[in-house]
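Thread: quick sanity check before group meeting

JM: Hey all, I'm pulling together slides for Thursday and realized we never actually wrote out the predicted structure for the chain we discussed last week. Dropping the sequence here so it's in one place. If anyone has concerns about the input, flag it before I start.
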Amino acid sequence: MRKPDLRYGNVAWKAVSSESFMAYPMATVYVDIAKRLGLNFDATIRLLSHMPSFLSNQAHKESRRRLAQRISEAKQTQETNVSEVIGGVIDKIDECGGSFDVLETVSEPVWIAISTALCPQAPAIPQAAVSVPELFNPYTSIRRRLVINDEIENILCQHDNSALDALALLSLGFRPLTGTIALSMHHLASKHSGRRLSQITYPSTFPVSALSFVDRIAQSDGSVTEEGFNRGQRYRCVIFDESYQQADNDRNIYGLGGHVCLGRSISQYMWNALCEGLMTCNTTIAPGTLQIGSTEPFTVPTTCKLHLSYD
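JM (edit): ok, ran it. Output follows.
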C-alpha cells in the first residue's frame, strides 16, 4: 500500500468521522508479509482482526460491543484500583524532593491498576499487551515481530476465547495511556515551571496525547471541505497537534467518530483524580529529562522526569 497522504485540521477530523472512509486494516499487512516471506503470523492476524481500531462497519461495531461490555464489568474495580494508586502517587509527591520519575511512579502503576482489573486471573495477558503495539510500528524488525507472534500464540493456547478480547483491549490501551500520562505531566511542569502544584489551574483533560494521528482509506473518490480524496488511497489524518486550538485538541483527545477510545471513561477518571490530588500539594514543580522512543504510531517517552522541591 502506498505511503499515506497527510491531512490536517477540519479535513482530517471530518474524514475520521465519515463513513466514506474505512479504518486501516492492519491484519492485512501481516497477511501480506506471511505470504511474501513464507512466515507464520496466524496468531498476530487473529489478534489484529479483533481490534476495533483496525476494523470498519459491522465488524467494528461487534468488536466494540464485546470490548465495551468487558470494560463495563470491570469499571468499579478499575476506579477503586486507580484511586488507590493516585493516592500513593500524591503521597510520594508530598514526600519527594529532587528527581521524580513519571513513568515509574505514575504511568506504570496506573497501567497495572487498570489492566489487572480487566484480567485479575491472567497476569500474562497484560504482560503480553506491553509488546503488541510494536506490531503497529513499520520499523519493527521481522525477527521481533515473530517473537511477539509467538507470545500471542502462547496466550491464546493457554486461555479461552475471552483472552483474545482482553489482549486486544489492553494492547490498544497500553501506549496511549502510559504515554499520554507522562507527556501531560511533563507539559504541565514545563508550562508552570517554578510554581507550586497547589497554585496551578489544571486543564479539564490531558493536555497532550501520545496518539496524534489515525490512518483511513477512502472507499470512493470524493472530497471533504473541497479537498479531494482518491478511492483506495491511505490518508494519515492528524487529529491532535500543537498547532491546533486547545479547544480542538481537548475535543479530539479521545478520538472522533465511531472509533472514540474505549478507555475514555477510566482515563478521564484517572486524570480528574490526579489533578484533584495535585491541587493539595505545596511542592514546586519543574521539568526534567524527556526522551522519546521510536514507537510509531505513538509518541511515548522512554524517560520522563520532573524536578520537585519545597522552595
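AS: nice. The beta strands are 5-7, 21-23, 98-101, 195-196, 213-218, 222-224, 227-229, 234-238, 284-292, 301-309. The longest helix spans residues 57-95.
JM: adding both to the slides.
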